[in-house]
Design a protein that fits this description.
heterodimer; A: mainly beta; 22-stranded antiparallel β-barrel; two-stranded antiparallel ribbon; globular; B: mainly alpha; two-stranded parallel ribbon; 26 helices; rod-shaped
Chain lengths: 457, 482
C-alpha cells in the first residue's frame, strides 16, 4: 500500500512535462556479500558457541532524483529512494525484508528570504538526526539570521519507520503502536564571519497526545579569535526529565593552514525517550577530555594523533560484585597519510584500554590513486580485543582489495573484498569473527550532476 | 596591422621576371628566362620613365590594367631583342587591407606633389632614384591615418584601411593567428574591453577587423546573449583556432575584497549578467550543488561541449572550510541544514552520516570494532541511530541479542554479573538497549512483579508520570512482565 502511494507520487512527478524542467537522476546499485558465523547459546555446555557459516547477499538500489524548473522559481522535487532485496541469503539480513524506503522525498520552494520544504526529510541539528514526514519552514530575515520551524510525523532514527510501526514493535513487544509527532524550532545567527550560534528546541509527542516522548534543547556556538583560535561549545538538555545531557567545549589552535591542535572537555549523559522504561532509569554522566593534533608539513603528508580520557563514576561505590572494572577509559588513535606520485599510503592505529574492554587495532592501506581515475588498493588490518562483558575476544587478521573508478563520464564502479581470520585468545568456544565481506557497487548519473563537473549534459 | 600594410600593392608587382643565365649552346636572344617572384624595377629604370606604363589602372581605377599583362613584357622580351620571359600574373595576395589607389593618387596629386606620387608610398628608400621600388611601409600610412594624427584623416577605427576579418576570406588561419596585438590590448585591457566592444559606432567596430564571434565565445560562456558578440560574423578559421583553447580567466579586483564570498549572492541576485561573462552555471554548481533551481544560477549559461568552459572552481572551498572544518562543522550545521544545503545535497551529508547504509564516518572495520566504542560511548550512537531498534536488529541476526542464556552468560567475564550489572548499566545504558528488550529489565525492575528493584536514580521526580503515564504503567500497573 505504501509502495503504491510512493509510486503514484513518483509517476505524478515524472508526468510533469520534461521540457519544462531539469532533472538529475543518480542510481547506485550495491550488492554485498557477507559470510559469518552467528553465535548461539548452547545449554548443554552453558556457553555461547559459533554456529556454522551463514551467508548473506543483501542488495540495495538507491535512486536520487532531483527535478526543478516547474515554471516556479526555486521549486524543486527531491527524493532519495532505497530498494532492498536479499539475494539468496541464509541469514535474515537486517532490513532486507523491507523492500522500499524513502530516505528523502520532499518538495521544496527556495526563495531568497525563505524556504519551505514538505515531505519526508531528515533534520540534522545539535540534537542529532531526526527524520519526519512534515513541513519545514525557514525564514532568513537577514543573511546572518535564520529561523526555522518544523513539524510532522516522527520516524525512528536510522530506521525511517514510524516509531509505532510493526517493524519497530517486532524488536520489542512492549513497544506501543502509537506513533509520534515531532515539533521544533531553531534559530541560527552569525553576528560576524568569525562567530555563529544556534539554539534548537524540539518536542516529541505521542500521536494520540497521551504523553510526551521527549522535550529537548540544544545550544551550539563557535567563535574564532584572530583567525588562529577557534572556541566552540555545545550542550543539550532534556526538559522532560530536567537533566543536562551532553556538553562539550573545545579550543582549536591553527598552527598553519594545514596543521592544528585541539583540546576538548566534554560531559556525556544519554537522553532517553519516555516511550520505554529506560526513560525513567538513571544513567550517570561521565566526563573527559580529548587532546588532538594534526600536522601536515607538506600537502602530501599528514600525521594526526589524539588521546581521550573518560572518567566514569566508580562502580565500587555501588556494588562489590564486579571485578576488575576500570573507572577510566583511554583511547589513543594515530594516523598518517603519505602521497608519493600517484601512490598513497594510509596507516592508522588505535589503542583502547580501561572500561569497556581493551582493543588494539591497526591497518595499513596502499593504493594507486590517480586523480579522476581509478583507485586500486590493498589493505591489511589486525585487531585484538578483550571484552569486559561479552564473549567475543581474540585476534583478527584481515586482508583485502579495493578498486573504484569512473566508467566513462556518467558511471562509476566500485568493488572491495575483505577477508578476516579470527584466533581466539583463550579457549576454543565463543564467537568466531572469521568472515568475508565483499561489495560491488555501480553508480550511474543522468542529467547535469553538479557533483561531477566534467560530465556532459 | 603592420604586416597587412606591408602587403600593400605587392600583389601588383608579384609578376616581376628576372633574367637567368642562358643555357649553353642556345641563342641568347631566344632564351626564355625563368620568372622570379620580384621584378627588378631598378634594372628597368632607364626603360621606364614612370609607373603608369605598366600600372595604368592605378590612376584610372581600372583593375584590369593595374598590373601589366605578359604581352607588355613581350614587347621587348620577344626572343630576338631580348630573351623571352615566361610568367603568369600572380593572383592577388590574400589580405584584409582595403586601399583605393585612385583616391590616394588624386589626393597626392592635388597636394602639389605631382612628380612621382607612387613614390610617396612605394619608394624603397629616400634616395629619390627612379624606379627605386620597395614594399610600402605602414608608417607612411600612419603619417596621416594614425589614431592620434592631426587633421581630418585621423582614424579612430581600423576601417577604411582594413576590411572585417570575415570579408578577408583569402587569409589563412595561420595568418590570422599571427595578427599582431595592438598596443592598446595590454594586460589590463581584458577587464576594460567591454566598453569598446559595446561602442559599435567607434572602437567597437574595429573588433571585427581581427576577431570573429568564435573568438569571443571561447571565453564568454554567455556569448550568444551579448549583442556585440552576436553581431560579430562567424568565421570557420577562427573556430578552428579556438578549438580546445583554455583561457585563464582574470580575477576582477573586487573579487579579492574581504567578505566577497559573503556578499556575492546578493550581487548575483541583483544582476547576474556581469557574472555570466566568465561563469558558466557549472562554475557555481561546484559549490551550490543543490541550487540549480535558484534564479541567478539558473540564469547563467550552461557549459557546452566545445564551447567556453567558464571559470573552473573545481575544488574551491569557502574560506571557512579550512582543513579543520570537519571538526567544526557541527556548529554551522547545528541550526539546521538551510546553510549547508545551499552547497550540499542531502547525499553529501549521508556519505558520512547515513545511518541506513554503510557510512564512511566510522572508518574501516567498524562493524568488527564497534563494541568498545559503544560501551565507552566514544561515539554518540543515538545521534544517528535509534539504538534500541537499529542496533538490536543486527544483534538479533548475529545471535548477540538472544536472551535465552541464564544469569548473564553472555557477560561471561563477570561471574556475578547479574548482581553488579547496574553500575555498568548506569554508565552505558544505551549499550544495554542495543540487545535487551524491556521485558529483560522488567524481570527485576518492576513494581508489581519480579524483585521490585527500583531503577530510578536519586532525585527522581514523580512528575514524570504527568509527562508520559504510559511509560510508568509498564512497571507499575501492567502486572508481571511477559
Amino acid at each position: 500500500m505504501r509502495v503504491g502511494r510512493y509510486a503514484i507520487a513518483l509517476v505524478a512527478l515524472v508526468a510533469t512535462p520534461l521540457a519544462a524542467q531539469s532533472v538529475r537522476v543518480r542510481s547506485v546499485t550495491t550488492s554485498r556479500f557477507i559470510d559469518l558465523r552467528p553465535i548461539s547459546y548452547d545449554p548443554a555446555s552453558g556457553t555461547y558457541r559459533a554456529d556454522p557459516v551463514a551467508r548473506a547477499a543483501p542488495l540495495t538500489e538507491d535512486v536520487e532524483l532531483s527535478a526543478w524548473g516547474f515554471r516556479v522559481p526555486g521549486l524543486r522535487a527531491y527524493a532519495l529512494l532505497r530498494g532492498r532485496a536479499a539475494l539468496g541469503s541464509d541469514l535474515a539480513w537486517p532490513r532486507s525484508n523491507d523492500h522500499f524506503d524513502a530516505l528523502y522525498a520532499f518538495l521544496e520552494l527556495e526563495r531568497p528570504k525563505y524556504r519551505l520544504r514538505a515531505g519526508r526529510q531528515q533534520r540534522a541539528s545539535g540534537l542529532g538526526f531526526y527524520a519526519f514526514d512534515g513541513l519545514t519552514s525557514t525564514w532568513r530575515p537577514l543573511p546572518t539570521v535564520r529561523v526555522e520551524a518544523y513539524g510532522g510525523r516522527g520516524l525512528a532514527r536510522g530506521f525511517l519507520e514510524p516509531v509505532g510501526s510493526s517493524a519497530i514493535r517486532s524488536l520489542d513487544p512492549l513497544r506501543r503502536e502509537t506513533g509520534t509527532i515531532l515539533l521544533g524550532t531553531s534559530v541560527w545567527t552569525a553576528p560576524s564571519a568569525a562567530s555563529e550560534f544556534s539554539a534548537v528546541y524540539q518536542r516529541e509527542l505521542l500521536s494520540d497526545r497521551s504523553g510526551l516522548v521527549s522535550e529537548r534543547v540544544a545550544l551550539d556556538g563557535r567563535v574564532e579569535i584572530a583567525e588562529r583560535l577557534v572556541l566552540s561549545m555545545s550542550a543539550d538538555a532534556d526538559l522532560a526529565a530536567s537533566t543536562w545531557g551532553k556538553a562539550r567545549i573545545s579550543a582549536l589552535w591553527r598552527i598553519n593552514r594545514r596543521s592544528f591542535a585541539e583540546i576538548e572537555a566534554f560531559r556525556y549523559r544519554p537522553l532517553l525517550d519516555l516511550t520505554t522504561i529506560w526513560g525513567a532509569f538513571a544513567p550517570e554522566a561521565h566526563r573527559g577530555f580529548t587532546a588532538s593534533v594534526r600536522v601536515s608539513p607538506t600537502p602530501r603528508a599528514t600525521f594526526s594523533t589524539a588521546y581521550t580520557l573518560r572518567h566514569y563514576q566508580p562502580v565500587t561505590e555501588t556494588t562489590p560484585f564486579l571485578v576488575n572494572i576500570k573507572d577510566n577509559a583511554h583511547l589513543l588513535a594515530t594516523s598518517a597519510r603519505w602521497l608519493r606520485g600517484d601512490f598513497v599510503v594510509d596507516g592508522t592505529y588505535r589503542l583502547q584500554l580501561g572500561f569497556g574492554g581493551s582493543q588494539s587495532s591497526g591497518e595499513v592501506a596502499l593504493a594507486y590513486a590517480r586523480p579522476d581515475a581509478w583507485y586500486l588498493g590493498g589493505r591489511l588490518a589486525a585487531f585484538q580485543q578483550e571484552g569486559d562483558f561479552r564473549v567475543s575476544d581474540g585476534t583478527v587478521y584481515g586482508a583485502g582489495l579495493e578498486a573504484r573508478g569512473p566508467v566513462g563520464t556518467r558511471a562509476f564502479l566500485r568493488g572491495e573484498v575483505m577477508k578476516y581470520l579470527h584466533r581466539r585468545l583463550q579457549g576454543s568456544t565463543g564467537a568466531d569473527w572469521s568472515q568475508m565481506r565483499a561489495l560491488i557497487s555501480f553508480e550511474w548519473v543522468f542529467g547535469a550532476n553538479p557533483d561531477r563537473l566534467g560530465a556532459p549534459r | 596591422m603592420r604586416t597587412a600594410f606591408g602587403l600593400l600593392l605587392i600583389p601588383a608587382m608579384a609578376f616581376v621576371p628576372v633574367r637567368a643565365p642562358a643555357p649553353a649552346g642556345t641563342p641568347s636572344a631566344a632564351t626564355t628566362v625563368i620568372v622570379a617572384d620580384s621584378f627588378p624595377h631598378a634594372r628597368h629604370g632607364r626603360v621606364f620613365t614612370g609607373c603608369s606604363g605598366c600600372h595604368a589602372g592605378i590612376s584610372s581605377g581600372d583593375s584590369a590594367t593595374m598590373r601589366p599583362t605578359p604581352d607588355l613584357c613581350a614587347g621587348c622580351h620577344d626572343g630576338s631583342i631580348l630573351p623571352q620571359v615566361a610568367w603568369t600574373r600572380r593572383p592577388p595576395r590574400p589580405t584584409n587591407l582595403h586601399f583605393d589607389h585612385q583616391l590616394h593618387g588624386v589626393f597626392i596629386q592635388g597636394s602639389g606633389d605631382s612628380a612621382l606620387p607612387c613614390a610617396r608610398c612605394h619608394a624603397a628608400s629616400d634616395s629619390a632614384r627612379v624606379m627605386d621600388v620597395g614594399r610600402p611601409r605602414p608608417e607612411r600610412c600612419l603619417g596621416c591615418h594614425a589614431p592620434d594624427a592631426p587633421g581630418h584623416l585621423a582614424q579612430a577605427t581600423c576601417f577604411p584601411c582594413h576590411v572585417p576579418l570575415a570579408e578577408a576570406s583569402g587569409l589563412a588561419a595561420a595568418r590570422i593567428a599571427a595578427f599582431p596585438k595592438p598596443p592598446s590590448h595590454d594586460t589590463g585591457y581584458v577587464m576594460a574591453h567591454a566598453a569598446d566592444a559595446a561602442d559599435t559606432s567607434g572602437a567597437g567596430g574595429t573588433c571585427a577587423t581581427c576577431h570573429a564571434r568564435e573568438f569571443c565565445e571561447s571565453c564568454h560562456v554567455n556569448g550568444s546573449r551579448i549583442d556585440p558578440i552576436r553581431n560579430l560574423p562567424s568565421d570557420s578559421r577562427v573556430a578552428t583556432l579556438m578549438q580546445g583553447r583554455r583561457w585563464v580567466y582574470p580575477k576582477p579586483s573586487y573579487h579579492e575584497a574581504g567578505g566577497f564570498i559573503r556578499v556575492h549572492g546578493l550581487m548575483a541576485r541583483a544582476d547576474v549578467s556581469e557574472c555570466s561573462n566568465c561563469h558558466a552555471r557549472e562554475s557555481c554548481l561546484g559549490c551550490h550543488r543543490a541550487e540549480e533551481r535558484v534564479q541567478p544560477v539558473a540564469e547563467l549559461a550552461r557549459r557546452v561541449r566545445g564551447g567556453a568552459r567558464g571559470v573552473d572552481l573545481t575544488g574551491f572551498r569557502p574560506p571557512d572550510h579550512a582543513p579543520d572544518h570537519l571538526l567544526r562543522h557541527r556548529a554551522p550545521a547545528a541550526g539546521g541544514d538551510a546553510s549547508c544545503s545551499r552547497c550540499h545535497a542531502p547525499t553529501f551529508c549521508a556519505s558520512c552520516h547515513d545511518a541506513n547504509g554503510a557510512p564512511r564516518y566510522h572508518g574501516g572495520d567498524f562493524v568488527q570494532r564497534h563494541a568498545q566504542s559503544a560501551f565507552t560511548r566514544e561515539n554518540d550512537c543515538a545521534t544517528c541511530h535509534q539504538v534500541e531498534a537499529f542496533c538490536r536488529n543486527c544483534h538479533r541476526t548475529t545471535g548477540r541479542s538472544g536472551t535465552g542464556a541464564p544469569f548473564g552468560r553472555f557477560h561471561d567475564a563477570q561471574p556475578n554479573w547479574v548482581f553488579g550489572h547496574g553500575a555498568v548499566a548506569r554508565r552505558s545504558l544505551e549499550s544495554c538497549t542495543a540487545c535487551h528488550v524491556q521485558n529483560d529489565c522488567l524481570r527485576c525492575h518492576s513494581a508489581n512483579a519480579g524483585w521490585g528493584v527500583n531503577p530510578h536514580g536519586p532525585g527522581f521526580s514523580r512528575n514524570m508520570e504527568n509527562k508520559n503515564p504510559g511509560m510508568c504503567r509498564l512497571c507499575h500497573l501492567n502486572g508481571p512482565p511477559r
